[in-house]
Amino acid sequence: MIRSGRLATAVALVSLLTGLTGCGGAPTGAQVGGTVTWRGGPLPEGTITFEPADPAGRPEGTDVRNGAFALKLLPGPYRVKVRASRAAGIDKVVNAPKFEQYIPAQYNVNTTLTADVPEGGDPALAFALVDQPAPPAAR
């Protein structure tokens, strides 16, 4: 009787561990990549985050280096957020460098950027960021 109890415990433990190894792995989906420009040139360094329109979806993000990024995403519509910071002097209280977010809010906190990822992915997404968004077209 004790042996069967240990066997059942061992089987349960192996099942639990096997199930856990499938969580949090690399995202599956289509390869997506592209460019991010700031004021007409490649964004030197920053991050890009894709938030699915479906609230049950999980946001995915990656680094932007020299204006380029690549990651895997599930097909569908996304809101896109771009962030980048730069040195902004020294915080005299803690005697450490301080940084400021220099990408305008319309590209992150209040983003107007979107992307629709097709089944096969898209290696050529392009996001051109400027200081001020273009005014709405006259009616």
Keywords:
about 140 residues, mainly beta, Immunoglobulin-like, four-stranded mixed β-sheet, four-stranded antiparallel β-sheet, 1 helix, about 45% strand, elongated
Topology:
Elements: H1 2-21, E1 30-38, E2 41-42, E3 45-52, E4 60-65, E5 68-73, E6 76-83, E7 85-91, E8 96-101, E9 113-117, E10 122-129
In short:
With 139 residues, the chain is mainly β.
How does this model look, in words?
The protein has 139 residues and is mainly beta. The protein has 1 helix and 10 strands. The protein has one helix at 2-21, and strands at 30-38, 41-42, 45-52, 60-65, 68-73, 76-83, 85-91, 96-101, 113-117, 122-129. The strands form 3 sheets. Strands 1, 2, 5 and 10 form a 4-stranded mixed beta sheet that branches. A hairpin with a 7-residue loop joins β3 and β4 (60-65). The longest helix has 20 residues, at 2-21. The protein is elongated, with a radius of gyration of 22 Å. The termini are far apart.
Please state the CA-atom Rg, rounded to the nearest Å.
22 Å
Let me know the largest β-sheet: 4 strands, mixed
Mean pLDDT: 82
Helical region count? 1
Element pattern in H and E: HEEEEEEEEEE
